Amino acid sequence: MNAAKGELFSDALMQEIKGRFHYVDHDMTGRERLYFDNAGGSFRLKAAVEQFARIDALPDNPERIHELALFLQAVQARGTDDVRTILNAKGGSVYASLTASGGMFDMVRAIAEHVPGTNMVTTALEHPSSFDAMSLYAGRLGKELRVAKSNPVTGGVDVDEIVGLVDKDTALLSVIYASNISGAKLDIQQIVERARRIKPDLYIVVDAVQHAPHGLIDLQKTPIDGINIAPYKFFGCRGSGMSWLSERASVLPHHKLAGKKKDFWDLGSAATWQFAVVTEIVNYVCWLGAQFAPSDDRRALFVTGIQKIELHERALLSHMLDGDDGTPGLRRMDGVKVFLDYEDLTKRDLILAIGIDNLEHAQAVREYEKRGVIVYERVATSLYSKRMLDSFGLEGAVRVSPLHCNSVADVRRFLRVTLEIQQALAVAAPLAMKAG
What we know:
By secondary structure, the protein is α/β, with parallel strands linked by helices.
């Protein structure tokens, strides 16, 4: 195995994996479709959707003492444990919110309002939910907001750039795990270690929404104070965000009912299906891990499963970039640009930003859809991408984001469609010039 280039699942396992998800090869009408916009959502596990419906159909209040209420309490406890399984988190508090964005705002507020310091540090590549939360509370509290610049070569943010902004008066450091434009992974372990050398008690929060479905998170190696994930981007269901807070962060003053424990963050009765869906996500990744290294330890199975997902996706990424003897990759297609391309694929999640010469990005998205491929444009007029694109000096890009339940055959189809779009433009351009 060449780890730098990844390792594909076997054809037999690939078919099993596809069978566990809804709408991988067809849309809801039965039409053939490639959905390569998983950075904006993700394929849904059939088991997760089934559990959502099963649990949410129950009228029972989990805060009661009868049999089904106790069952719901057990479901919530199991899901809470499984959030910790995903993160390798010990202790602390798990917080279920309507969205991961809401969870991030709540965590930033609690720390910013109650931890002394004159400045807060973040990066140019943050999702608006974390960047805007940092900006809002820095402004409200009179703290300086320091923003680490992106690196247009790697597509990420250099560790030196981030820790160079941290000092003994930094109240909070907020960083994203991986860019949702370039797919570049930040070196969270180095960021945490080096920032804490400067200020040992520094509070750190991490936005892991984009990265969690693609690679391993280990809070024992990266001891932070808050992290969020979004089940709907992790094979689960929309309408749920999950956050974890360290013991010291969880007891900072925050919105809660006065009678609840200091480290309790949920407001109102829990939506138990949120926890049931997390358990199905972990069940699936553990099932996948067991195909390679059977174990009685749930975290060990999860680690193997997510590592195999990462390797398969790296192989898909390599194939998209370099192609094979029968299909040229994006790097070898005339008239196609791969933005923020970087040779070391071990530092990438499965996201690509591309452009097609003489084709506006939104129009490119429509051309792909005509051919049964769903991608998405990221343009500088969008509140979700302007700051990131500006930092890279880009006006826009077509974002391409498959998932591990896609096969190399799916990637070949995508490459053929890209070639078809580019060739159609090449034919049309001389005709347009002649007509003019």
